[in-house]
What does this fold into?
Amino acid sequence: TLDRNVQYQAESMLLEAVAAAGAASGVALVAMPATGEIVAMANVARGDNGIVDCTRHNLAATWSYEPGSVFKPVTAAAALSSGAVAEHLAIEVPSYLTIWEHRFEDTPTHPDVEWTPTQIVARSSNIGTINMALRAGEERMYRTMRSFGFGTRTALDFKGESKGILPPLGEWSGLSLPNMAIGQGLAVTPLQILQAYNTIANGGVLVPLKLIGGDNTGTGAGPVEEPAPVRVLSGEVAATLMRMLTAVVEAGTGRQAHVEGFSMAGKTGTAWQPCDIGYECVNDQNELVGRHHTATFAGIVSNDDGPALVVLVVIDQPKGERISGGKLAAPTVSRIAEYALRQLRFPAELSTVGGERRRADPAVVPPPPTLLADQSPDAGGSQT
It folds into this structure.
């Protein structure tokens, strides 16, 4: 199902982003949510010589990491499905939250407020997301995560594919629910995140991922037997999540993921990864030297016919100031999505300018975007 042109450009654009950020590695995935077909799967890494290049290691399947805020829509899905929260019903978001002597905060900090679930997701509020999870409860949260496919391999079942880490409910501590709610304290693969966003795009139906379509042409093996789609969320909850994720791009942390002529919905993530002392890294002299960050953006791009593509970019261990999902991964998703939409001939949305319908131009390689000053809070941990 790979498109060689989209694959090449995804690799090229990911290489540029990882090299420019001084990062260790990166993954880019492009899929058609309605069919589960993967159109591009790019994996790049920095070698011992310091040069970033494509790697034979399939990081999309074998690498698991703590996802951070890109996981928050899963928490919102659990809370909405439970009936504990509603789209337009504001809930309490205090200035901080203390659970089992651990203090959770938002960045930037704020006074006690009341926000709707959409505002919580758009602002990537840790406290608001945790409160949604507390309302949903541990059992609902665990069932929702499992139903999305977290803790299990995808239908691709690659050799060495990781299941990620989702502790059984009986092994949870008092901090498991609040940590997992904001994408910390569990591990996922890029393919699992792609699958989750495909499910939201599909109106709540999980269509198994695939790399081989229809027939094993020329192998004599005949048609490929595909797992059946499974409904994970109600159509109403999935539609609500799409509106939330659209707000992230239009007015929240994901503004730089915009694609001209199409609607983009998505979520940023800037996660801390476990290091030498908890989430703190140290040097040979046992001095604190900062944290290991991972920047993510998962985007659902749509036209008048509905969701067309899901594009995911994950960049590990970026250096410098632009390390957040909103500043680093989102612009890369925008570039890859723009090319893929043109290459695959998806028409742009209807425009009334001049009374004519405007469609995407033929496939061209878009130039690197002019990076705008970030308009969203740049927070550590799982804030953005």
